[in-house]
Design a protein that fits this description.
This protein is α+β, with helices and mostly antiparallel strands and about 130 residues long. It has one domain (about 5-130). It has helices at about 5-20, 55-60, 115-130, and strands at about 25-30, 35-40, 45-50, 70-75, 80-90, 90-105, 110. Strands 1, 2, 3, 4, 5, 6 and 7 form a seven-stranded antiparallel β-sheet that branches. The longest helix has 18 residues, at about 5-20.
Length: about 130
């Protein structure tokens, strides 16, 4: 699958989540410090957040007591960055600039980062903790 195909599939999946207003089930730290956003329909999105980490953490706390959902998605520069707006209680709230590292749903699974890069990052992380 080419980068352009990956971008189209991930964008289509994110737009569908926003259009259908699928509620966020949880937001928590994922693999290698990435943020893992899980939706109630089973979709999981691993994000490398460039701008909006604190906003995403506030959303994580809010999702326990309110309905939080992805309301708008805008592809940005590069091939994997998105401006993602989340809403709660019917109002647009936090906006996050993030790179999708992996997108997984019942119908789509797109690893954005190559497996060799993940292995290299895991090895580097393991080496850092071993010292």
């Amino acid at each position: 699958m080419t980068r352009a195909e990956r971008k189209r599939r991930v964008t289509a999946g994110l737009v569908t989540l926003a259009r259908r207003r699928i509620r966020v089930a949880s937001i928590r730290p994922g693999v290698l410090g990435d943020e893992l956003v899980e939706f109630v329909d089973g979709t999981c999105v691993w994000l490398e957040v460039r701008d909006g980490t604190s906003a995403l953490r506030r959303l994580a706390a809010a999702s326990a007591s309110r309905d939080v959902y992805l309301c708008r998605i805008e592809p940005c520069f590069g091939c994997s960055w998105y401006q993602m707006s989340f809403a709660h209680d019917g109002e647009v709230g936090s906006t996050v600039l993030a790179r999708v590292k992996q997108y997984e749903s019942k119908t789509i699974w797109v690893p954005w980062v190559s497996i060799s890069r993940w292995r290299r990052q895991l090895r580097d992380q393991h080496d850092d903790h071993g010292r």
